[in-house]
Amino acid sequence: MSRFLIVLDVDSTLIEDEVIELLADCAGKRVEVAEITERAMQGELDFAQSLEARVATLAGLPDSVITQTYERIRVTRGAKQFIDEVHSRGGKVAAVSGGFNQLLEPLAKMLQLDFWRANELEIAGGQLTGKVAGDIIDRKAKADALVEWAAACQVPLANCIAVGDGANDLDMMARAGLSVAFNAKPKVRQAANLVVGGNDLAALIPLLP
């Protein structure tokens, strides 16, 4: 049983980057992918369709791009300090991402997250197929993850804090007792209970119970 649960979005929240754009760099498709990402985060495109369109641009890349991309990820300032503070106060920290588990898992272990979930890039013959394996982590799946983890920790939803920046985070934020827009798009800032500017996760420490 934990005192409270923090659930963080990953791209542009827990990390400063959009991982799909870093991967797209390797395919020479960053501009094309960034445009689709922006439209999805603004809520102009269905997330699942936009993800499939972006991942399709990666078809044929060697799976070594995953390691190359991981090495380029920039963890958001204050992230480790914030996570350590949550743990010191008896809370749990989770991350749920519309990005990719092959990149989130090593990051989560490094940061000592308690739970994490993301999409799985399909790989065959040492290459990315341009498809996602299994169910897509969309806005409903993010909300479902928060509810599932809260139950696992025996934490009431009222004691959950959801932190995100894009339209894909809105359902998750709606389920939490406190929703925080961090470095967020206008639609998310309007929906959130609190808006935190800047790009330092340590700024969230005063919100912890």
Major pleated sheet: 7 strands, mixed
Mean pLDDT: 94
Task: Identify low-pLDDT runs.
Answer: none
Spatial order of strands in the largest sheet: 4-3-2-1-5-6-7
Measured by DSSP, the beta-strand proportion falls in 15-25%
Instruction: Using the 3D structure, state the CATH architecture.
Output: 3-Layer(aba) Sandwich
Helix and strand string, N-terminal first? EHHHHHEHEEHEHEHE
**Helicity range:** 40-55%
Q: How many domain units?
A: 1
Oligomer: single chain
Which radius of gyration do the C-alpha atoms yield? Answer: 16 Å
Bulk shape = globular
Structural description of this entry:
By secondary structure, the chain is of the alpha/beta class. The chain has one domain (5-207): HAD superfamily/HAD-like (Rossmann fold), CATH 3.40.50. 41% of the residues lie in helices and 21% in strands. The chain has nine helices and seven strands. The protein has helices at 19-27, 30-41, 47-56, 64-70, 79-88, 101-111, 139-153, 170-175, 186-191; strands at 5-8, 92-100, 115-124, 127-133, 160-164, 178-182, 194-196. The chain has a seven-stranded mixed sheet, sandwiched between helices. Strand 6, helix 9 and strand 7 form a beta-alpha-beta unit. Helix 1 packs antiparallel against helix 2. The longest helix has 15 residues, at 139-153. The mean pLDDT is 94.
Topology summary:
Elements: E1 5-8, H1 19-27, H2 30-41, H3 47-56, H4 64-70, H5 79-88, E2 92-100, H6 101-111, E3 115-124, E4 127-133, H7 139-153, E5 160-164, H8 170-175, E6 178-182, H9 186-191, E7 194-196
Parallel strand pairs: 1-2, 1-5, 2-3, 5-6, 6-7
Antiparallel strand pairs: 3-4
